[in-house]
Specification:
Layout: H1 3-15, H2 25-30, H3 32-50, H4 55-75, H5 80-96, H6 102-113, H7 117-130, H8 135-147, H9 151-164, H10 169-182, H11 185-198, H12 203-215, H13 219-226, H14 239-242, H15 251-263, H16 267-280, H17 285-297, H18 301-314, H19 319-331, H20 335-348, H21 353-365, H22 369-382, H23 387-399, H24 403-416, H25 421-433, H26 437-448, H27 455-471, H28 475-488, H29 493-505, H30 509-522, H31 527-539, H32 543-553, H33 561-576
Length: 577
């Protein structure tokens, strides 16, 4: 056999012929499309072998098969045999064509995945010998050198990356981390500040920067950066790696690709990929569920509802799907349908604690305290330490006409846990409902004094306090508390709505309009806020805007007689103008 034929034969053996290289059993069982891809690439290699190709062409074909195997492994971390097959292909592709930097680079990444930093470093250096300015290879090699205990080599590589790509955050982070390890906190802080300025979402950088400032004695800055710390690393563009996960075909592979988009926060794009997965296999229940969730995350609620309906048509026994659909329906104001799906979820899973709890909340909102109490009791039987359920149960007891019993429970709960914001708020609400305004206000003011609550919890307490002050006629004090609550949590529509009402009473319509608009920005279906804002617009000679606002609100109030009546009155008033 001449040298050329031997090269081809070894390439095929290393990559794997149909007899020697197969996908793991799980992929054979669930990914027939991937098996077809593998077979097609293997046929292409055999065809090239019989056509007297040059080594670069054959190497590219063998390397492409390796990339496919590598993509399979990235979509399934347990597919170790797929990674081994990829490495075999890369080695043969590199032997066939030593001038292509892709094969040693991808071989290095495979070794890094296995935790073999010696092999990874050797392969990255081989890639850089072909393509010296390949920044991703420089970055990955630097990290491998750190793992090998060679910080000076890593620093030289990161400095090289900075020359090629000034302000490259992963390199700045690497240099900052090395400076911190050497005890040079000032240099570390400089590098790390520059890194997080470009990538503020990189929580690892914030953590290291906090440690640098702590060593410098600056606890204020250290605390601020610790609050932003996480395991999120510095991302960097790496097309050779990024392409791999998108190579495998088939419904199961598309689901995994969609999940990659979800992790990146690209929910609309993820929904598109999950839809393609369903096209490839309409019976893929996982694809249907992830499609619904992606639509929810993308704010595409009508599409999400349709996706859940399709999923439940395929498998009506999915309790979690009934629960998720119920939450979606509840948020869209369809309480009756939400109750129906929660009841089905509980029928399928009798100990589904969150389904019982959400059903209790819906009964609460519907003014059905007896049914709510039954569900709260079930939740507490499943989880006696569920404090929030205990608090809401007490409120339901009050709504059922037993306020004294509720006050006894809530007073004891607040005494046990003064920082329990939900219990403090519930206590105030029950006292307010009993027209014991001074006691309600005192309970809130006492808690807001020494206790430190999370911003959202404090905002709710100040909103409640603002409402009580408004009832007492102390409008300016009420506005002050409500503005403080709005600043603490701008996403709470009730705060903005109550503030708008107080500002109207203070005869400050422009400020009230801004408050109502803030409420609608968070809750477009808040009909009262929409009507109040439209009335202000009409009264200030802006009827065109007022009518447009009402037209937009029809979709949220199709069966609301109050909205229809108020809308008609406002249209008549505008027509007279």
């Amino acid at each position: 056999m001449n040298r050329y034929c031997l090269a081809v034969a070894l390439a095929l053996l290393g990559c794997g012929t149909p007899e020697r290289v197969t996908l793991p059993a799980v992929h054979q069982a669930h990914d027939p499309a991937v098996r077809a891809q593998v077979n097609g690439l293997e046929r292409q290699i055999r065809t090239l072998e019989g056509g007297n190709p040059d080594d670069a062409e054959l190497g590219a074909a063998v390397g492409e098969l390796g990339r496919l195997y590598h993509g399979v492994q990235l979509l399934d971390n347990h597919a170790f045999t797929a990674l081994e097959a990829a490495e075999d292909c890369y080695r043969e592709a590199r032997r066939l064509d030593p001038t292509d930097h892709r094969w040693p680079y991808l071989l290095g990444f495979a070794a890094e995945t296995r935790g073999d930093h010696e092999a990874a470093a050797a392969s990255y250096r081989a890639a850089l010998a072909v393509e010296p300015d390949l920044v991703p290879a420089i970055q990955r090699l630097a990290r491998s050198e750190v793992e090998r205990g060679r910080p000076d080599e890593a620093a030289a590589l990161w400095n090289r990356a900075q020359e090629l790509r000034p302000g490259f955050p992963p390199a700045l982070y690497g240099l900052g981390s090395l400076a911190l390890e050497r005890g040079d906190a000032e240099t570390a802080a400089d590098y790390l500040e520059r890194a997080v300025a470009v990538e503020p979402g990189a929580g690892r950088g914030h953590y290291s920067l906090a440690m640098a400032y702590r060593r410098l004695g600056d606890e204020g800055r250290a605390t601020r950066h610790l609050a932003q710390a996480s395991h999120t690393d510095f991302p960097f563009e790496d097309p050779l790696i990024g392409e791999l996960a998108y190579l495998p075909a088939g419904s199961a592979a598309l689901v995994q690709q969609g999940l990659i988009a979800v992790q990146a926060g690209e929910f609309a794009a993820a929904a598109t990929v999950f839809a393609r997965a369903i096209e490839a296999d309409p019976t893929n229940l996982e694809a249907h569920r992830h499609l619904a969730l992606a639509h929810v995350d993308a704010g595409q609620f009508e599409q999400a509802e349709a996706a859940y309906e399709e999923l439940l048509a395929l498998d009506p026994d999915q309790a979690s799907a009934h629960f998720e659909l119920a939450q979606l329906l509840s948020n869209r104001g369809q309480a009756t349908e939400a109750i129906r799906h929660l009841t089905q979820a509980i029928g399928l899973a009798p100990d589904y604690k969150q389904a019982h709890y959400q059903l209790a909340l819906l009964f609460d909102r519907a003014g059905r305290p007896a049914e709510a109490l039954e569900r709260y009791d079930r939740v507490l039987a499943l989880d006696p330490d569920y404090a929030e359920a205990g608090t809401r149960r007490a409120a339901a007891i009050a709504a059922a006409g037993r306020p004294a019993e509720a006050l006894e429970i809530l007073t004891a709960q607040v005494a046990r846990a003064p920082s329990d914001a939900a219990a403090v708020q519930a206590l105030s609400v029950v006292l307010r409902q009993q027209n014991r305004l001074q006691e309600a206000r005192t309970a809130l003011e006492r808690s807001l004094g020494p206790e430190h609550f999370a911003a959202a919890d404090e905002a709710r307490l100040r909103t409640e306090l603002g409402g009580i002050l408004a009832i007492e006629g102390r409008l300016r004090d009420a506005a002050r508390e409500l503005r403080a609550a709005q600043q603490l949590d701008p996403t709470e529509p009730q705060t903005s709505f109550v503030l708008g009402m107080v500002l109207l009473d203070l005869r400050r319509p422009e400020e009230a309009a801004r408050a109502f608009a803030a409420a609608l920005a968070v809750r477009p279906d808040l009909t009262l806020a929409r009507l109040r804002l439209a009335a202000i617009l009409a009264q200030t000679d802006r009827c065109h805007e007022a009518l447009a606002l009402l037209d937009d609100g029809r979709r949220f109030a199709t069966n609301d007689p109050m909205f229809a009546q108020a809308s008609q009155q406002l249209r008549s008033a505008c027509a007279e103008q």
